[in-house]
Automatic annotation (TrEMBL):
Domain of life, per lineage: Bacteria
InterPro entries: 23S_rRNA-intervening_sequence (IPR012657), 23S_rRNA_IVS_sf (IPR036583)
Record-linked Pfam families: 23S_rRNA_IVP (PF05635)
NCBIfam families in the cross-refs: four helix bundle protein
Protein's recorded name: Four helix bundle protein
Length: 130
């Protein structure tokens, strides 16, 4: 769990980053066409995209290393799912080419950060239990 000043700063920056990402996802979903497939994908996208921020915030408030790792893992899964929905909307031709490239790049970057953080937390937990 974050406990040093630099870790606290990173955690706060990443909290803000995931929140900003969630807001961007919400705005994108609000602008999707009204086709049934867009509505279905949009609902899944907004659920997954906002869940990243919620689960990361929960991880930062974790009461134990185990709880911290579990919440990070959920946030990582939601980030991966967000990438899927963005790719489906893009490849399905529901948005103009390049419309979500920045959002997709940010989703993958968030996924990378969460993956590294989860691996570090998992390794730390394994080391502590050996």
């Amino acid at each position: 769990m974050p406990n040093s000043v630099s870790n606290f700063d990173f955690a706060e920056e990443f909290r803000q980053r995931t929140k900003a990402f969630a807001l961007r996802v919400m705005k994108l979903v609000d602008r999707l066409p009204n086709a049934p497939s867009c509505r279905a994908a949009g609902l899944q996208l907004v659920r997954a995209g906002t869940s990243i921020a919620a689960n990361y915030r929960a991880a930062c408030r974790a009461r134990s290393e185990r709880e911290f790792n579990a919440k990070l893992h959920i946030a990582l899964e939601e980030a991966d799912e967000t990438v899927l929905w963005l790719e489906l909307l893009s490849e399905g031709g529901h948005l103009p080419a390049g419309k979500i490239d920045d959002l997709l790049t940010e989703a993958k970057a968030i996924m990378s950060v969460l993956g590294k953080a989860e691996k570090t937390a998992r390794d730390k937990l394994r080391k502590a239990s050996s």
